[in-house]
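Predict the 3D structure for this chain.
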Amino acid sequence: MKIFTGVGSRDIPGPRGRLLSFIACYLVRLGWGFRSGGADGSDSEFERGAVRATGTSQSEQIEIYLPWPGFNGRIDVPENRILGKKSNQEVARQIAKKIHPAGGNLKESHLNLHGRNGYQVLGENLDLPSDFIVYYAEPDGKGSVKGGTRTAVELARCLGIPELNLWYDHVARLLFDLIKANHPDPLWECYKQLKLGEFREWLHG
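Done. Predicted structure below.
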């Protein structure tokens, strides 16, 4: 089963949030697995679509990881997907420390928030990378993105995982059009077309 990570900013416009739900629903119906972090905004919009596709939040296709029990009012997540209950939680925290610019100085709660990004990208045993990361996050002007999503994005980049940032209108529009056309592998096709476009700009620039 192919797996995508769906994460992003808590602050997201309604139309773009509905697009995240639409994308997740389509991918999960295609058989993709889904990972996220249970936060408001982008995480919740992605999850809403995944649940719509499966009919239940307890589907084996859906993996939601929390930084601590009861995060964001969630009581439906099993203990093996809560950082504070996991035997490998120190590994997840170490990943966050390595990636976050202030990793060595993060408070425990913030370290747990960023630590759960490791599970969102690598799964509950931290050994099965997602095939794709799709997210909505504002660029930071330095080649990455703002907010906690940065940890997941930079980890994905370390692992060579392809990414799509739906903050950009042209990316969102292309992916939407591919799904509306019932493309059998819209993430890869979107990624390929974007990369070819970048190459042509470089070649003729």
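The mean pLDDT is 96.
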